[in-house]
Amino acid sequence: MNISEPFIRRPVGTSLLAAGVLLLGAVAYYFLPVAPLPKVDFPTISVSAQEPGVDPQTAASSLAAPLERRFAQIAGVSEITSVSSLGGSSITIQFDLNRDINGAARDVQSAINAASGELPSGLPQPPSYRKVNPSDAPIMVLAMTSDALPLSQVYNLADQIIGQRISQVEGVSQVIIGGGAKSAVRVQMNPVALASMGLSLEDIRTTLSQANVLSPKGAFDGRAAAFRHRQQRSADAGRSISADHRRAAQRRGSARCAMSAPRSTRRKIAIRPVCSTTSAPCC
């Protein structure tokens, strides 16, 4: 018996069955879920390298270029794009669809470690990476302003309190804080006065780096209590900069001052005879 024989012998029933299937398909068509973008998770990783004060051209050559050369050697990379701006570079790496994102992340970390010797030595922190989805877009943008607080304190509130609270909400994958001004101490020096004292800019930088170290120094054990001691210096250390091998640098306080301000400020500040320290917004 042929499977098509019953449909040939009963043409009316066959026509009604075909019409019913056609009607059912037409009704079900309007209930199909439609998404603006296909549900495809592209294996994409974003790498960020920051160096305060660096210009975009220098960031592209000293930060982005060494990292891109290492990332290009990773298997399964389909596209590498980078954007360099004032203060750092951002590199986006997209892999083939059949590449596991966790394995790709391990390869990216290995490439960052391999490129560490080619990066500038003055980076505040090593380049960091995170997994991203190109189809994701911000669902909320918040702006913070204050007429009573400086911009650096507003940034600290957003970074340390609000941003952390929002990141703890279930379903939030990333919180980006931008446009603020981190607190820092800037040192402005007069090269002519330094040269007359037999000092160089590198001498001042070395002294500052050694005088502003937060490190443990040991402990005091008593009968009833134990105390931990650590070396702690602040911006006031700028008043007592001295180089033991330079007698002329032992004149303290008369040519230096320290004060608190945000990083990367573009205001004009009067230069003291030798140097001055100010706080400015981050680059």
Can you give a write-up of this model?
The protein has 283 residues and is an alpha+beta fold. The protein has three domains: 44-135, 2-Layer Sandwich (Alpha-Beta Plaits); 138-180; 184-220 and 228-278, no CATH class. 31% of the residues lie in helices and 19% in strands. The protein is built from seven helices and ten strands. It has helices spanning 5-9, 11-29, 56-71, 101-114, 151-167, 191-196, 201-211; strands spanning 44-50, 77-85, 88-95, 128-132, 183-184, 186-189, 215-221, 226-231, 261-262, 275-278. The strands form four sheets. Strands 2-3-1-4 form a four-stranded antiparallel beta sheet. Strands 5-9 form a two-stranded antiparallel sheet. The longest helix has 19 residues, at 11-29. The chain is elongated.
Question: What order do the helices and strands come in, and which of them pair?
Answer:
Elements: H1 5-9, H2 11-29, E1 44-50, H3 56-71, E2 77-85, E3 88-95, H4 101-114, E4 128-132, H5 151-167, E5 183-184, E6 186-189, H6 191-196, H7 201-211, E7 215-221, E8 226-231, E9 261-262, E10 275-278
Antiparallel strand pairs: 1-3, 1-4, 2-3, 5-9, 6-10, 7-8
